[in-house]
């Protein structure tokens, strides 16, 4: 991974985080006596004294936690959402450790002072990062300037060019390409020579990073190129030409010192997965408790309306292509599956249109449940079980997945959800082959805040009833 900043910047970041955390503690102590004027339910207190030892413990806890959780790892903070989530999680873990310390030795420490301190700290730590990002983007003054040379001007090399251009504000500067095929010199592609010219170009252009992006048939040149550059002060990286085979993205795992390329690497990192799963369990658990009476009422209406079971279990494809049984309230007649082949329709391009507004298999109660999306409520149990998430691409039918093109399968790189980006931006009035692009947008731009936005927007979309049938 091309580094976003130097070690010096990471050290300065850690020092700034510790200083701002101490400032947050001092600010919370100063503000605590005045809180009752804003929050009448708090008991007025005089000026609070904090034991001096805590001003030593807090930097140790926060600094150690931030290091252990890799907040300063440049490979994890290219995207702002990744960095903000890492900081938020680190503050949460540090807070739990600090609360344990307070419980063991400082029980007189005000709980509201702790809450105030943590909130101020989180705001300060996120704010300076926002300011720094905007400052560098607006001023075009990078933290650390690195000149990059790409070996190979094919599809992989051009994809690298786009990535480097996107993150140019971090200091990355694409100097040009090396390639043995002179016909690849097109507008936007600057060929500086052939592969055999690598040493000369690196020395003349003062290159810092060399990225080898050769196609598979040219891998025999990689060994010789690496040997030719071994004595030069440059970083050399190899990008395997396996993008077309990866489900979403590829990663390198170390197994006993042997590097292995994982072609099915999840789109969510460990921190994002932990936050998403915790969020799902908390929100879903509360929702099940609140909505349980509606489950009983809907079950009675289904039984009175038509014969057959209350729930409908359907085979669906989940994350990474794993099949599971998705639960729904039954909205169709019992023999609906046998009638499916008679109702299949295709558009002018030959693409399958799965849902239709005048489906004769839907029951009277089922039509209401579908219009209001109440038939989806049992999927809360799938979320609790871990088969699904509250937000994500919609789990698809296995026989529909068989019709997918390779690029569409990338939607399975994240947990499949009850609601998602395409549902709140069009719902069922978009056919399968179109809403997949919206799903991929969600996969590539995932954040907890995006999940919250989609959940908040979902009720409004359901009330409008657009595209639901």
Describe the structure.
This protein is an alpha/beta fold and 469 residues long. The protein has 3 domains: 7-139, no CATH class; 146-241, Rossmann fold, CATH 3.40.50; 270-464, no CATH class. It has 14 helices and 12 strands. The chain has a 4-stranded parallel sheet with strand order 2-1-3-4, sandwiched between helices. Strands 5-6 form a two-stranded antiparallel ribbon. Strand 11 (389-391), helix 12 (398-401) and strand 12 (417-419) form a beta-alpha-beta unit. Helix 1 (7-31) packs across helix 4 (111-139), helix 2 (54-68) packs across helix 3 and helix 8 packs antiparallel against helix 11. The longest helix is centred in the middle third of the chain and has 36 residues, at 270-305. The protein starts with 6 loop residues before the first helix and ends in a 5-residue tail after the last helix.
């Amino acid at each position: 991974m091309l580094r976003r900043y130097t070690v010096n910047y990471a050290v300065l970041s850690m020092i700034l985080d510790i200083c701002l955390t101490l400032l947050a503690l001092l600010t919370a102590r100063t503000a605590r006596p005045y809180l009752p004027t804003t929050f009448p339910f708090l008991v007025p207190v005089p000026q609070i004294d904090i034991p001096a030892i805590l001003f030593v413990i807090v930097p140790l806890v926060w600094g150690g936690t931030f290091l252990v959780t890799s907040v300063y790892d440049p490979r994890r903070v290219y995207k702002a959402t990744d960095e903000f989530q890492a900081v938020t999680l680190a503050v949460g873990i540090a807070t739990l450790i600090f609360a344990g310390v307070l419980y063991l030795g400082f029980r007189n420490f005000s709980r509201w002072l702790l809450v105030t301190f943590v909130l101020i700290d989180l705001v300060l730590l996120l704010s300076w990062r926002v300011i720094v990002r905007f400052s560098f983007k607006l001023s075009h003054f990078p933290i650390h300037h690195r000149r990059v040379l790409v070996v190979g001007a094919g599809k992989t090399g051009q994809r690298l060019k786009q990535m480097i251009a996107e993150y140019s504000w971090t200091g990355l500067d694409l100097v040009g390409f090396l390639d043995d095929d002179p016909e690849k010199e097109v507008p936007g592609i600057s060929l500086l020579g052939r592969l055999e010219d690598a040493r000369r170009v690196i020395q003349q252009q003062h290159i810092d990073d060399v990225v080898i992006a050769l196609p598979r048939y040219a891998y025999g040149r990689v060994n010789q190129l690496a040997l030719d550059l071994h004595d030069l002060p440059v970083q050399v990286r190899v990008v395997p030409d396996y993008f077309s085979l990866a489900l979403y993205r590829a990663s390198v795992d170390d197994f006993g010192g042997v590097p292995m390329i994982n072609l099915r690497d999840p789109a969510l990192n460990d921190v994002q997965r932990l936050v998403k799963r915790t969020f799902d369990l908390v929100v879903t658990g509360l929702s099940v408790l609140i909505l349980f009476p509606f489950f009983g009422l809907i079950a009675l209406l289904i039984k009175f309306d038509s014969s057959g079971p209350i729930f409908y279990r359907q085979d669906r494809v989940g994350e990474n292509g794993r099949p599971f049984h998705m639960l729904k309230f039954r909205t169709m007649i019992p023999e609906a599956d046998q009638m499916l082949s008679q109702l299949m329709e295709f558009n002018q391009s030959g693409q399958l249109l799965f849902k239709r507004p005048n489906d004769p298999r839907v029951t009277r109660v089922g039509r209401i449940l579908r219009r209001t999306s109440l038939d989806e409520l049992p999927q809360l149990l799938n979320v609790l079980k871990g088969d699904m998430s509250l937000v994500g691409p919609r789990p698809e039918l296995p026989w529909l997945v068989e019709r997918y093109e390779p690029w569409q399968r990338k939607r399975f790189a994240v947990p499949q959800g009850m609601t998602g980006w395409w549902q709140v931006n069009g719902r069922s009035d978009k056919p399968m082959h179109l809403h997949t692009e919206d799903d991929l947008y969600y996969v590539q731009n995932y954040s907890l805040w995006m999940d919250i936005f989609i959940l908040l927007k979902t009720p409004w979309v359901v009330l409008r009833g657009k595209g639901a049938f």
